[in-house]
Design a protein that fits this description.
With about 200 residues, the protein is mainly α. The chain has two domains: about 50 residues; about 120 residues, no CATH class. It is built from ten helices and two strands; from the N terminus they run H-H-H-H-H-H-H-E-E-H-H-H. The protein has a two-stranded antiparallel sheet with strand order 1-2. Helix 1 packs antiparallel against helix 2 and helix 6 packs across helix 7. The longest helix is centred in the N-terminal third of the chain and has 26 residues.
Amino acid sequence: MKRKKVGGPRGKSCHWTLELDEILKLSWEQGGLCAAKKAIWQHQPSWGLYSVKRRASGLELCHASPRPWSETEENHMLWSIDSNASLPLIAERLGRTVAAVRKKLRNLGYTAESLGGFKVKDVAEMLLVCPARIQYWVAEKHLLTKGGRITESSFSKFLADHPEKIPFESLNVDMQNWLREMGYPDRKRELKFGRANTQ
């Protein structure tokens, strides 16, 4: 007697239409894998994450180059920062990810400290965890606050000391790269250099 398979359909058993492909492309451009899976699951809730990633790879979305910033977008971002708008709100207005906005700000010389650190809500949205978990990490002194905001230095230390707490593989590529810049250990690089040292 054959065992019944559990879980959603994978790979070729998922029938991708032109409409679903367009939804995947648009949502991927706006927020990477996280946004794409949410958009597809609204239409096909039984499909697995593997199917979304495989289709994205087939459409060559995984390595798409970032959309260049226009002067208008840059000015709007800076105006929004001066107006104390949150980074998720700015990202939503510009149709970009929080990681992309934060990276652009860093390139322009802005830091988390100059922006007043991180809001609990911002960190939760960036890491795809609930705000209560971020508040727990603050209560446990894993993350330190100043003026009610999480400091950049403590966030970097947290990434380096507690990488296992971050759902890294669930984040989009922009966010993964930014977290590495902030202190998250690059496991692939460590393994590569580790092998080189043993040879």
